[in-house]
């Protein structure tokens, strides 16, 4: 009898097997095998999540005999069960909340004689199974810290359903001795819970209580650190707080003076601050849909972007923006702080501007001492530096903007056709850097690492590369990187000594979207609308607004935003007005340029562009958005990446209904070529002179860009040159643009990114898939 697979889910119209049962015959065939027992092999996120005690209890419920243990490949069960069909289905449908099953494989065997069911010690060490991400405090543990009992008020309460995992793990297998909890010796009460299969703390490696676990401390010293932190926050002071993956800097979000003081000390003039509050608290300040509620309550506990509504918070939390980033408390310490402060808290990354988040106690004193009035510490080491994940819900599903704590090291199944592909490691881009490893038919995309221009971030990148390779016993046959030779990630790839596959930036974006959607390797070509900042091509020009036609192995550039100069080179990435100048001059709108940009050095920059000096040509959609923001009043330099485009989206969302119609036209070449934007700028300047509101103009710009690119991609699919449209690139973090693009594409199949960032944070996944396809094609 041959093995069979049972598909479980369908994503974006493409069949995708997320759980597979490999059985000798169908489930109903087992009735003639009751003289045999079975081995059941379970692969996926099944260690450190309470899976063995779950199997133990399930076996008792079914009157089964046998054993269950962890080993290098996942969980292995030997079982004799008269109702094996029902038992197999219950393994999936009733499994623990943090478990994620990839495959269940069963085989009949001659069974030993068992008198009951037993949990065995872990088998051989190995890295063939997943490590569980950190998980937000579960309801049971929240109840425990707020009611009478030995863990009342204890800031490090956890169980198998919640608590730290990846941030405390040093080596596999996931046992206490290989975590930063190793030096905390369990007291008799905790040891009894740890050894009891019926207890929710059975083999919970971070198990602790006030008698034997980590403890809080305050700098300056305090007899009651928690109460002192609460007092300081309520008084308008700034407190640095040690969390799971690093320090936060917190203040009372309702206190405008405290928020202003934090901005001044952190030298962060406009970038929005993240907020933390209970769900009831969040609903006082934001609209929260059922999907957004589910996202907030996910065990990953990400920051979720929510529309402001109801009671107003100080404007300085997110100057000019219609959305605020909220997260629920995800550690017992957070729950206790918020309960006693009684107000929402700003909870921003504890770092100096541009540097990685602080994780060590001494490091916090050194780097955060000038920002925070006090530092709330504890004595459990953070092994891995992880920022908070940032996400949003859209009409088309979730959107991941930053993939970090709570999401990593979760894996993605490789699409059909890559089962036997060689293992590779890909090193991503230069900004929003991340690393991707492939192994055993899965891709592991690392946490957000940051901007590699920063020396400390570069150090973290190198550490992460070695860390992931050691932790997952990864021995790649080749490496992949961006085509840009000056990216630090590209130089790192070439220094490995392994075969190096260079992948064009926007091809990697396309492949990342295909991979996430489980597009088969032989699924045919796709039209990719790739809109982002900058990406080097092998012709030496800088791309950023393309319609590509391709697959994992190769691509062609079908249409593109007409190139414009980047006056001042890198300065054009920081100062949007430079991009506006280039486009107005290119559209022969010199008088408008001198009117709108009267205080800028127009003559000098025009000479530089004419001479081609420090003014490279680019088709960047990101710089087009920057130019439009400058035309509508965004002046000066961006204080953080994407600020101008975010402001443009915020304006567009406020467009009065009576003015919101229409669009600015771009000349669209349906049969391929340059998408010309000169007409757009003439229309923009006309509306500006006519007194049209900036909100309506921003909306018309978004609509015009969406309709123009969609028209080209739709034509490619309708004429049979592609099977679907894939949307990727950092511009698709703009939920309004995404809405308008999908509307304009109409009835053609569309592939979106909902699990992997569409920005450069997802680039390494695409690089890895391109590399594997090319290696196998040789």
From TrEMBL:
Keywords: Hydrolase, Ligase, Metal-binding, Transferase, Zinc, Zinc-finger. GO terms for molecular function: acylphosphatase activity; carboxyl- or carbamoyltransferase activity; double-stranded RNA binding; ligase activity; zinc ion binding. Residues 223-406 form the YrdC-like domain. Gene3D superfamilies: 3.30.110.120, 3.30.420.360, 3.30.420.40, 3.90.870.50. GO terms for biological process: protein maturation. It is an enzyme of class 6 (ligase). Pathway: Protein modification; [NiFe] hydrogenase maturation. It catalyses: C-terminal L-cysteinyl-[HypE protein] + carbamoyl phosphate + ATP + H2O = C-terminal S-carboxamide-L-cysteinyl-[HypE protein] + AMP + phosphate + diphosphate + H(+); an acyl phosphate + H2O = a carboxylate + phosphate + H(+). The active site is at 52, 70. Involved in the maturation of [NiFe] hydrogenases. Along with HypE, it catalyzes the synthesis of the CN ligands of the active site iron of [NiFe]-hydrogenases. HypF functions as a carbamoyl transferase using carbamoylphosphate as a substrate and transferring the carboxamido moiety in an ATP-dependent reaction to the thiolate of the C-terminal cysteine of HypE yielding a protein-S-carboxamide. This is Carbamoyltransferase HypF. It comes from Marivita hallyeonensis. The lineage of its organism: Bacteria, Pseudomonadati, Pseudomonadota, Alphaproteobacteria, Rhodobacterales.
């Amino acid at each position: 009898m041959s093995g069979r697979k049972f598909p479980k889910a369908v994503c974006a119209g493409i069949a995708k097997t997320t759980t597979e049962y490999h059985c000798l015959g169908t489930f109903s065939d087992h009735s003639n095998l009751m003289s045999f027992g079975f081995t059941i092999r379970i692969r996926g996120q099944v260690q450190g999540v309470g899976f063995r005690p779950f199997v133990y209890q399930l076996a008792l419920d079914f009157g089964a005999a046998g054993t269950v243990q962890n080993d290098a490949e996942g969980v292995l069960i030997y079982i004799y069960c008269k109702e094996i069909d029902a038992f197999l289905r219950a393994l999936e449908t009733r499994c623990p909340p943090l478990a994620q099953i990839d495959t269940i494989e069963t085989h009949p065997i001659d069974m030993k004689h068992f008198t009951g069911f037993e949990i065995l010690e872990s088998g051989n060490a190995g890295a063939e199974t997943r490590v569980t991400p950190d998980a937000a405090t579960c309801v049971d543990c929240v109840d425990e810290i707020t009611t009478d009992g030995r863990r009342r008020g204890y800031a490090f309460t956890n169980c198998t359903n919640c608590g730290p995992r990846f941030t405390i793990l040093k080596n596999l297998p996931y046992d206490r001795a290989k975590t930063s909890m190793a030096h905390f010796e369990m007291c008799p009460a905790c040891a009894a819970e740890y050894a009891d299969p019926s207890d929710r703390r059975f083999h919970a490696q971070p198990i602790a209580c006030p008698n034997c676990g980590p403890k809080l401390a305050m700098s300056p010293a305090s007899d009651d650190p928690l109460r002192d932190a609460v007092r300081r926050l309520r008084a308008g002071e700034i407190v640095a707080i040690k969390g799971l993956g690093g320090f936060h800097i917190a203040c009372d979000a309702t206190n405008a003076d405290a928020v202003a003081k934090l901005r001044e000390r952190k030298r962060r003039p406009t970038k929005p601050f993240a907020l933390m509050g209970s769900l009831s608290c969040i609903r006082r300040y934001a609209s929260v849909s059922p999907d957004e509620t589910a996202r907030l309550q996910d065990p990953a506990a990400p920051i979720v972007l929510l529309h402001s509504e109801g009671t107003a918070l100080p404007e300085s939390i997110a100057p000019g923006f219609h959305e605020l980033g909220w997260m629920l408390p995800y550690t017992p310490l957070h729950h206790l702080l918020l309960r006693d402060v009684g107000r929402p808290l700003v909870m921003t990354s504890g770092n100096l501007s541009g540097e990685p988040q602080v994780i060590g106690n001494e490091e916090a004193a050194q780097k955060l001492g000038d920002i925070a009035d006090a530092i709330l510490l504890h004595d459990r080491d953070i092994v891995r530096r992880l920022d908070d994940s940032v996400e949003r819900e859209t009409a088309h599903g979730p959107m991941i903007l930053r993939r970090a704590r709570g999401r990593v090291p979760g894996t993605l199944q490789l699409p059909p056709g890559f089962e036997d592909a060689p293992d590779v490691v890909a090193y991503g881009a230069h900004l929003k850097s991340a690393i991707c490893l492939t192994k055993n038919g899965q891709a592991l995309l690392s946490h957000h690492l940051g901007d590699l221009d920063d020396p400390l971030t570069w150090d973290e990148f190198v550490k992460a590369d070695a860390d992931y390779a050691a932790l997952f016993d990864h021995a790649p046959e080749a490496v992949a990187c961006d085509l840009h030779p000056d990216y630090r990630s590209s130089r790192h790839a070439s220094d490995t000594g392994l075969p190096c596959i260079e992948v064009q930036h926007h091809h990697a974006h396309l492949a990342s979207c295909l991979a996430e959607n489980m597009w088969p390797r032989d699924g045919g070509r796709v039209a990719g609308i790739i809109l982002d900042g900058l990406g080097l091509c092998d012709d030496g020009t800088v791309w950023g607004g393309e319609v590509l036609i391709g697959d994992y192995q190769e691509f062609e550039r079908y249409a593109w935003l007409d190139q414009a100069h980047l006056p001042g080179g890198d300065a054009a990435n920081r100062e949007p007005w430079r991009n506006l100048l280039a486009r107005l001059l290119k559209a022969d709108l010199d008088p408008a340029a001198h009117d709108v940009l009267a205080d800028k050095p127009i003559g000098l920059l025009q000479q530089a562009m004419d001479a081609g000096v420090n003014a490279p040509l680019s088709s960047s959609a990101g710089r087009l958005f920057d130019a439009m923001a400058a035309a509508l009043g965004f002046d000066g330099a961006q204080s953080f990446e994407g600020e101008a485009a975010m402001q443009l989206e915020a304006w567009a969302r406020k467009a009065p209904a009576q003015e919101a119609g229409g669009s600015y036209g771009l000349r669209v070449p349906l049969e391929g070529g340059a998408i010309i934007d000169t007409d757009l700028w003439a229309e923009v300047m006309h509306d500006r002179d006519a007194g049209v509101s900036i909100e309506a103009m921003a909306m018309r710009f978004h609509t015009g860009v969406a309709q123009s690119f969609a028209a080209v991609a739709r034509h490619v699919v309708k004429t049979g040159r592609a099977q679907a449209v894939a949307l990727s690139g950092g511009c698709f973090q703009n939920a309004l643009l995404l809405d308008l693009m999908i509307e304009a594409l109409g009835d053609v199949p569309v592939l979106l990114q909902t699990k992997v960032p569409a920005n450069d944070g997802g680039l390494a996944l695409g690089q890895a898939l391109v590399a594997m396809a090319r290696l196998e094609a040789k």
